[in-house]
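Minutes, project check-in

Agenda point 3 was the complex the collaborators sent over. CS summarized: two entities, 487 residues total, and the question is how they sit relative to each other. Sequences were read into the notes so everyone works from the same version.
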Amino acid sequence: MKKLLISLIALSFILTAGNVFAKDWKKIRVGVEGAYPPFSFVTPEGELAGFDIEIAKAVVKAAGAEIELVTSDYDGIIPALLAKKFDCIIASLSITEKRKKKVAFTDKYYNTPAKFVQKKGMIATYSKDAIKGKTIGVQRATIHEDFIRDNFGKDVTIKSYGTQDEVYLDMQSGRLDMLFADSVAATEGFLMKAEGKNFEFIGPDFTDPKWFGTGVGIAIRKADTDLVDALNAGIAKIRADGTYKKIQDKYFDFNVYGD
Amino acid sequence: MDFSIILENLNVYFDGLQNTLILVSVSLIVGLIFAIPLAVLRTSKNIVINGPIWAFTYFFRGTPLLVQMFLIYYGTGQFDFIKDSFFWIFFKEAYFCALFAFSLNTCAYTTEIIRGAIENTPHGEVEAAKAAGMSMLLRIRRIILPSAFRRALPSYGNEIIFMLHGSSLASVITIIDITGAARKINSTYYSPYEAFLTAAVFYLCITFLIIWLVKRLEYSWSGHLRRD
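CS then shared the predicted structure for the full assembly.
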C-alpha cells in the first residue's frame, strides 16, 4: 500500500512536471468567455460559437497546434490566465497599458469603437451634461467600465455586471438609462435583436487609446514569449490566406479589423 | 503579493461592509418578524393553515438563494404588467430585490427552526399552563414561544451566519457589498488573492461578532438552568 502510494505520488510529480516544462505548444488551451455575442456565445446546441471562437480555432491551427477551449468568467479571465488555467485569452480583450502590466499581448485581431446606447429619443444630442445623473450599465472588468469610471464617475450611477448579456437584460427592463459597450457587440448582441428594437446608439465613437487601447489582441503570460511569436505568426497567416476574411464575412458586413 | 492596493482601496471595502450589514440585518429582522407567527401557524393540525406555509418554506428552502434572486431580479423585469405597475418602483432597485429575496429566504428557514422548537416544547410546561387556566394565546405568548426561542437560539445563530454568507450573492445583481468590493478590486488590479482574502477577513470578523453575541444571549436566556 505504502509503495503504491509513493509510486502514485512520484507519478503525479512526473505528470505535472511534464505539463510545466512542455513548451513545444502541441496543444494550446484558450480561455474564452461564451457570453458576448456575436464574438463569443453558446449556441442552443450547447456549442461555443462566435467570431472570437472561430478566430481562436483558425489562429491556433495556423500556429500548428491543437486547441482546447476553456470558458471563464470575464472578470476573472486575466487572473485565471496567470494561474495557468489556460495558456492564452481570446475573448475580445483590448490591448491597454493597464493590462500590459500583467500580461503580454499579440498584435490586434480586430478593432472596433465603443458607444453609448439609450432608449430611443431619451436625450436628443449627446453631451457630458446631458448624461449627468443617468444610470449607466457596463460589464465588469472591461475597458468600458474603466472609461466610464474615469470620465463620468462622479456624474453618473455606474452599475457593473458580470456579463454583457446581463447589461442588455437590465437595459430592457428599464433599470438602466444607458449602457456603454463595444459598438459591434451592442449592435449584433442587442440592437439588431427583437429585444433591442426600442434602443439606439447615441453620441460619438470612443477610441481614445488611453482607455480603449490599440485594438483587441490575444493575451498571454509574459513568460511565454515563444507563444506570443507563434500566435502572431498565426494571426498574420490567417490575415494573408483569406481565412480571416472568411470568418469576418460570416459575422459582419464591414471591416472589423480596422486600419 | 501586494497588499498596498488593498490599503489604498480600504474605503471600497468599508462601503461594501455597510451594504452587507444593512442587507443582512434588515432581512433578518423582516424575516424573523414574519417567521414567528408563521411558525405558530405551521404547528397547526389544520392542513388549510399549515399547508400553504409548508409550501412556502419548502420552496424557499428547496431552491438555491441565487436562483431565487435571479427570479426576483431578472424575472420581474421580464413582465410588462409588473413593469407598468406600482410595484416596479421597488423591483427596479437591485437593493430592494436583494432584500426581498433574502427576507423570504431567511423567513422560510427561521419558520422551520422555530416550528421545530415549538414542537419540542416539553408537554409538562403546556399542561401546567393549561392547568393554570391560561388561554391559548396567553399560553403561546408566555410559555411556548419563550421556551421555543431558548431552544431555537443555537440553530438561529447558524441561520444568521448563513444569511451573512448568503448575502455575498448580492454582488451578482450589481450591489457592491463586501464581495462586490472584492470583485471590483480584483477586476481593477487583477489580484484575486489579495482582493478576496481581504473580503474573507471582513466576513470572519463579522462572523466572530455574531458568534459572540449569540453566546452571550444564550447565557443570559438560560439563567434559570444555571447552577451557580
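Noted in discussion: The interface with chain A takes residues 74, 76-78, 83, 88, 92, 94, 172, 174, 183-184, 186-188, 190-192 of chain B (CB under 8 Å).
Follow-up: revisit at the next meeting once the mutant set is ready.
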